[in-house]
Amino acid sequence: MKALQFDYKLPRYIFSKITGKFLPSAYWDSRISCLQYLEQLEPELPNENWVKVRVKYGGICGSDLNLLFLNDSPATSPFVSFPFTIGHEIVGIIDEVGSKVTHLNSGDRVAIDPILSCASRGITPPCTACLKGNFSLCAHKTEGDLSPGLLIGACRDTGGGWSSYIVAHKSQAFKLPEEVNDLNGVMVEPFSCALHSVLRNPPSKNDTVFVIGGGVIGICVIAAIRALEIPCNIVALVKHPFQAELASHYGADEIILLQKPNYVEDLAKSLKGKVLKPLFGPEVIEGGADIVYECVGKKQSINDALRFSKNGGKVILLGLAGIMDGIDWTTVWLNELEVKGSFAYSTEQYRGKRVPTFNIAIELMRDGKVDLSPLVTHRFPLEDYRNAIDTASNKKNRAAFKVVFEP
Q: Which CATH code fits 202-341?
């Protein structure tokens, strides 16, 4: 089968880093880039507790682009195994079932939770985090029956969504009801990221919520809050007009365009804050949002998250923040802010029970509380990967939102 694999080799890395500054396509369109389109064998079941899945759609995530552009922090490198097939946003059909899998059958349509925790790795007893259902915080990401890897799409043994087949542990495959179509199915994973952040850090009634970023995760955070019927005021800061339309469609009360020269004044007004002028440097904001969901992971967005949070407020970091200079942490201590990270999904307290995040996402889709299929704007066959990646990385020019492969 054909697959798009990422293989770190120092010469490839150096070539891409140097050439990519002048020609971005060098990151994915060269015989010596880290990304390679090649023929490989279909992955085999690691043991009888696994299933093999034929991929119907494999999404291109912002984290995948971060990887391709070689912007990942070296701190994540111990938690991957090269070469690996990229892709962790996956909807597909079960093609083969291990002998110890009883709740799944060939032909079942499934969304894949890609996290490789103790259960997937065959580790018993499970670590403390996995015992509590916090699978994304598993302490054994490099151990057990599998090569190192945070998730499917970063482990050489499992395959990834940028190919025709993957293998997944029986605990990672979630059956989709008829009411949830394939386009919603491929959105279950990013929607679960948003749900996890909101359910672990829910706004209170009548709170003012500030969502930074009009990409997939930012829009999914807005959609999650509305699907969960949390009565709060949502203010969104987005970059492009088409993102503003989506933010409004999914329930934002006010939308501010980042490109406007006076966005700080407009945003402060929406958040009922006051703009103060320091001796020099960017404006200081007095007042702001009760809770901020930062969904970009850039220097400007993180600074905005901190300064537009009110005294005693909370900032949730969902964006792929890595190594960056120029973050002003003054307001964290001055305003006693609570700053928390949010990674992936796991198990949530929901309607009095502990429920996997994926099950909640699928239930909300099944019940018509949210329809994310309009977010999938572009579909490409795997062999057209150059155009697919170019589209995903130039969303403004292509009016693209979620781009997916059809292997």
A: 3.40.50.720
* 3-class DSSP string for the chain: CEEEEECCCHHHHHHHHHHHCCCHHHHCCCCCCCEEEEECCCCCCCCCCEEEEEEEEEECCHHHHHHHCCCCCHHHHHHCCCCEECCCCEEEEEEEECCCCCCCCCCCEEEECCECCHHHHCCCCCCHHHHCCCHHHCCCCCCCCCCCCCECCCCCCCCCCCECEEEEEHHHEEECCCCCCHHHHHHHHHHHHHHHHHHHCCCCCCCEEEEECCCHHHHHHHHHHHHCCCCCEEEEEECCHHHHHHHHHCCCCEEEECCCCCHHHHHHHHCCCEEECCCCCCCEEECCEEEEEECCCCHHHHHHHHHCEEEEEEEEECCCCCCCCCCCCHHHHHCCCEEEECCCCCEEEECCEEEEHHHHHHHHHHCCCCCCHHHEEEEEEHHHHHHHHHHHCCHHHHCCCEEEEEC
- What CATH class has 2-188+356-406? alpha beta
Residue type at 302?
I
Q: Which amino acid is at 69?
A: F
- Please state, in angstroms and rounded to a whole number, the distance separating the CA atoms of residues 139 and 129: 7
> Would the CATH topology of 2-188+356-406 be identical to that of 202-341?
no
Tell me the per-residue pLDDT of 53-80, one tens digit each, with 9 for 90 and over. 999 999 999 999 999 999 988 899 999 9
Over residues 374-398, the pLDDT tens digits come to 999 999 999 999 999 999 999 877 8
Inform me whether the pLDDT recorded for 367 exceeds 80.
Answer: yes
Tokens of 367: 């019940």
Domains in the chain: boundaries: 2-188+356-406, 202-341
In b/e form, how buried is each residue of 96-128, taking b as 16+ CB within 10 angstroms? bbbeebeebeeebbbbbbbbbbbbbbebeebbe
How far apart CA 223 and CA 229 sit, in angstroms, is 10
Instruction: List the beta bridge partners of residue 53.
Output: 94, 166
Other residues' Cβ atoms within 10 Å of the Cβ of residue 10:
7
Instruction: Copy the structure tokens of residue 287.
Output: 């007042």
